[in-house]
Amino acid sequence: MPIRFRLALVPALTPAVALVAGLPFVNRLEPIVFGLPFLLAWILGWVLVTPAFLGLAYLLDRSTSAAEDGDGR
Amino acid sequence: MTTPLLVILAFILVSTVVGVIGRGRGAMNLERWSVGGRQFGVILVWLLMAGEIYTTFTFLGASGWAYSRGAPSFYILAYGTIGYIISFFLLPPLWRMAKSLGLHTQPDFFLARYNSPALAGLVALIGVVSIVPYLQLQLAGLGLIVHTASGGAIASEVAIIVAFALTCVFVYTSGLQGIAWVAIIKDITMVVVVVIIGIGLPSMYFGSVGQMLSELVRRHPSHLTFPGGTTTMGVGWVISTILLTGVGFYCWPHMFASAFSAKDERTIKRNAVIMPLYQLPILLVFFVGFTALLVMPGLKNPDTALLALVMRSYPAWFAGLVGGAGAVTAMVPASMLLLVASTLTAKNIYRPLRGGAVSEEQLMRASRGFMLLIAVVALILALWSPNELVKLLIFGYDGIAQFFPGIVLGVFVRRITARPVIFGLVAGEAVVVSLIWSGHDPFLGMNAGFVGLLVNALVTLLSATWGQVLNHRKIHDPRPDPITQLKFGGEHGEPGG
How far, in Å, are A10, A51, B81, B85, B259 from residue B88 at the CA level? Predict the structure, then answer.
């Protein structure tokens, strides 16, 4: 398994863990965030920042694969 | 009232014309018809995938669930994101395989990777069987939309037949390219409509979204935490459902095929990066459902909550606009499902049964023929057995999610063979069918499909390991057998991708 694959996994999996494993701890209404009950705000917030995390994974993916390509092949 | 009706009709007709024109020039072949000639860029792939994600179930179902169930509906907001994250890693290698081997369909992948016609046939069969109820659901939703938006003037049966016949016309002539163009119309109107009503309706009745939510919390304190308005959909159900549907997201044969239409790998990855933002309209659909609960409690069919509230709050022409957007929202996924189910049937069931002696032109003709056949079957089901739809949809999702171990292992683990995957698939489907049909969904607080997936993964891995153990016993030769050779070769010698 190539190294770049594992590196990109870290930022990519963060929102997934938060959206799944976080749920038992956020199943409540308070505090209200921007008018949204906490549970909804938590889910929405992670959905919103996922592109940033995946974008980071994309950059990691690209830079390491470029380095590998330059590595004498 | 004829205004909404005319608007809806105009929508449906314009979409059909665009779909037919969208085929472009030149002769149609299976590559163009089923995967758009693999020439789609980021925007078109994005629209196409979004076109399949935003189905009439999202439009009516999400608002209906927000209305009747509350917090458990939030899973709809989360699972797509899980699906995109998985797709970021899974789709690029899949796309590479599809491109180099000329794959069109999901069973093509199983055949090429596992070299097992039995597995490919099984996948094709489960795929088509799961698609038909999904297609049926789109048609029933379409009938409901037109019937409600026309104030009962048009029977849902008439609406279903007319709109579906037109859908068949552009799928028949243009294939995926036509669908992609109609998806553009659909997405633009859908987003505009959802933004207007998602913010407009709460503001109209409560001043703002925030005030609507605090009123909801005051009147229904438990509605916005799990298990909401239900007794069975607690945290365990939500987690297992997000996992199952997130995993199953790209297991749908049509989602698989839409990834093949991309022109390069980068398109697919960039697409995965931006897709989560497309979940936002679902939030606005929830707001409409919540507002409806406060303003019009006690609706007999929660799925009509969005439309009923729109008709009550806006002028007739706007209700028509919402109805038209809703109708196209049913037509686009229906066309995609139809296209994929027919390609699957022609290429992966019909051709192997004919012993493979079928030319490309014959295959194209057969695909179109099966398209009409499947359309008629779905139409008959939608007209004569509209009940139990949700149950069928759940079965569909639970069914296709069982492909996941075979897909992931097939892409990332070289030495996995067909037999363990078949065992796992059959075990998973058996668990799903028996749990749902015996009324045990949710099972131990978990989504039945997820239970099936666990059994599936376990059986696959155990039989794969068992197969290796047997292999080792059989071969007393001290030289490594080819399978372990592959394994160690894969870990040390492979240059990375």
Answer: 13, 11, 11, 5, 11
